[in-house]
Amino acid sequence: MNIENIRAFLEVSQTGSFQQAARNLNITQSAMSARIKGLETGLNRQLFHRRRNGAVLTPGGQSFFRHAASLIRTWELARQESALSENFHSVVGLGVQLNHWHSIVTPWLNWMGDNHADLATHIQSDYSSRLMERLRDGSIDVAIIYEPQQIPGVTIESFAHEKLVMAASSPRSAESGAVEGYIFIDWGQSFRAAHSRAFPGIGKHRITVGLADVGLGHIEEHGGSGYFLESVISDKLKSGALHQVDGAPDITIPTYMVYVDAPERQVVLGKAIEGLRNISSTSSRADR
User: Fold this and answer.
1) How much is the pLDDT for 148?
2) Is residue 69 predicted with pLDDT exceeding 80?
3) Which of 53, 161, 208, 259 sits most deeply, having the most CB atoms within 10 A of its CB?
4) Alpha-carbon gap, residue 161 to 282, rounded angstroms
5) Please, which residues have CB within 8 angstroms of residue 145's CB and are 6 or more apart in sequence?
C-alpha cells in the first residue's frame, strides 16, 4: 500500500475537497484523484462520495479513517527509528509554536536529557495550523500551540497562560495612538484581539513581525518597543537593557498541549508529556 495515497486520503478527509487537498500537498488535482483511486482499488471500496460542494467520506471511508492516521504514524516512526544510533531506543517529536523555543524547548530538552537520555528528540517550530498537520501526518507526537483544532485521534488540554509585557529600549509611558519605533509582534489570534481592545483605533502597524527574536533584535539595535514574553526578557528588564512601559497592560495568552492518541506510543509519549507538564508547573510556581 502506497503511503502517499494514505496521506492524500487524510488530506481530502480533513479539507473535504480534492482541489484544496491537492494544493496542500503541492500536487495536481489529477494526481490527487489518481492517488485516491489507487487506494480505493487496493481496498476494493469507494472511500468518498464526490459531490459538487466537496467530498464526503462513505461508510467504508469512515472505517478506513480510523486506521489511516495510525498507519501514517507507524510509517513515520519506523522511518525515524531505523535511522537512530544504537544509543537510542526510540524517538519522540515535539512541535512548538513560534517564539517559544527559549521558554519551552530549552527546558524540555534539559529535562529529557536528565531523565530519558535514551530517547532521541526532534523538534519543529511553526504556526498552529502547520503543527496540527504535523500531528496528523505522524511527524510529531505532541505540540504546544495557541490555536488547536478538534480532529479525530488527538487530545487537547490546557498547558499554560503566559504573560506578555510591553518593553522598550528606553523608559517611557504607554500612549493611546501609534508610537514611533513600536513593533507589532504577532502572538496569535487571542493576542491580536486583546491588543485591539487595549489600543483601539490603531490600524496597520509600521512594522509587524512573526518572530519575537527578530523584533527584539531590531529594538535592541535601533530602539523601539513591543510585547514579549516576560519569562524570556526578565533578565534584560532586571539589568536595565530593557524597560517595561509604564501603564501598558499585560496581555495573557493561553497555550495548549495537543498529542496523538496512540496506544503503541503510550510509554514514550508519556515521558515527553511528563517533561512538558513539569515545565508548565515550574513556570506557574515562578509566576506566583
Assistant:
1) 92
2) no
3) 259
4) 13
5) 95, 97, 128, 131, 132, 255, 256, 258
